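Anyone opening a protein record will find just a pair of labelled lines. A complete record is shown below as an example.
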Amino acid sequence: MLLEFITWQHEEILRLKDEIAILKGQKPRPKIKPSKLEAGTREKRQEEGEPGKRPGSAKRSKTEEVTDFDVVNLSVENVPHGSAFKGYEDYMVQELIIESRHVLYRRERWIAPDGTTIIAALPKEVAALKGGHFNRAVNAAVLSLHHKGTVTQPLIRDMLTDWGIDISTGQINRILTEDKQGFHEEKKEILRVGLEVSSYVNADDTGARHQGKNGYCTHIGNELFAWFESTTSKSRINFLDLLRAGNSDYVINEKAIDYLCANNLSEAQINSIIDSGQTSFATEKAWKAALESWSITNPVAVRIATEGALLGSVLEHGINPNLAVISDDAGQFNILLHGLCWVHAERTIHKIVGFTDEHREALEAIRGQIWDFYKALKRYRKSPSPDKKAELTARFDDLFARETCFITLNEALKRLHANKAELLLVLDRPDIPLHNNTSESDIREYVKRRKVSGGTRSDEGRKCRDTFTSLKKTCGKLGVRFWHYLNDRLGGTGEIPPLSELVRRRAEQAMANPA
């Protein structure tokens, strides 16, 4: 009873503080609720003709995919005389057996007549581990626990010790970071192929401290793949550099010149670039030397010219020229065909606090109409037509060019209206999503890791974190079990094709069987 009274008192104090703030012309505490643009209630899904249950919640058999199992027949004791045998009733139990084994390989050792020592070779699966006295399962367990289970290195050692494996934290660190070039190459191929076969990508970034300094991790991906890379910058130059997928050249082509013109590089500087006749520069050093020869030294001009040359390189290496980049309106992602996330756009209105009842009513009315418009866009994606496109374009202008009684709301609507082309990109490209949820969900994995383990300390550690996060998330999107993937790669069996090949196959299947 006393606890309830204290809770009520606390809420009443906060309410009174909000009222005082409003009377003083100040903003009360913002009441930020979950966005209703992607509300997943059963009623809303049923209104739109979708199944009542959320995806993945349907009842299913937990053992329907089990094909390899032992059979134990159980008999009934003291069956009454005259009973009829009616077969068996199955009861499946899933077991996990964790045990340690120690194998001592006694290798014959011979001294040849010339004095050289000959030692019997280790089995291939042992020799493939490149040092370390731990088999493939131990290596896979360390990688899986750390990168999929978000388990720290000290806890991994505790778990393995409990299971009978005597291993040091230094050895665990070596398993996590050393001799991973094959994994790094596979990650690089995922981005290259993903950009080649995709019609759009989602992009986002988050903080990623390294060696005690602030840095950033950029995510690029969609429903086919997820790719992460940590750098010291979050600029557009950095994003374009990542899109080169490992290439290091700078290219001046038609698209690069168009970019320079669109971003107001001076005519004289553009002519200097064109008149030079140079179209490709193999390294950053060669590119900087060319800029100096063209007398392009102003920092802004250098930035624009570099962005253009990087964009030229990106398009030169097979990226889809009609690639759409969906983001939360961060400026560095505004290249090629740029689309904005409607969930982030609606937050501009969502965060506004009305001072009067009239203001609050105007806010609710506008938000309701935005949600209705968003639903209309979702329906348009399923069945686009020129008439619907014209109707939605006019409806957008009517909604976001409106004048209400609330000046703050009017300014927010104007800002959204200024982004009309990016918010309505879906009218020309119904294949792209209306939100950036894919990127937001994927990058949350990195945020979780950062909260558990903090920043990275070694360059190789940062590289491995990016690589295995990319591989793990991509495996999940392709339906490949990460544990099986690790065992396949560590054992060199080759049963699981390269993930980039699976990405290409999935894209081809999607094109052959559009939803």
Q: What stands out?
A: DSSP finds 22 helices and nine strands in the chain. The mean pLDDT is 88. The CA atoms of residues 9 and 391 lie 51 Å apart. Strands lie at 109-111, 117-119, 200-207, 216-221, 226-231, 250-251, 280-281, 324-327, 337-340.
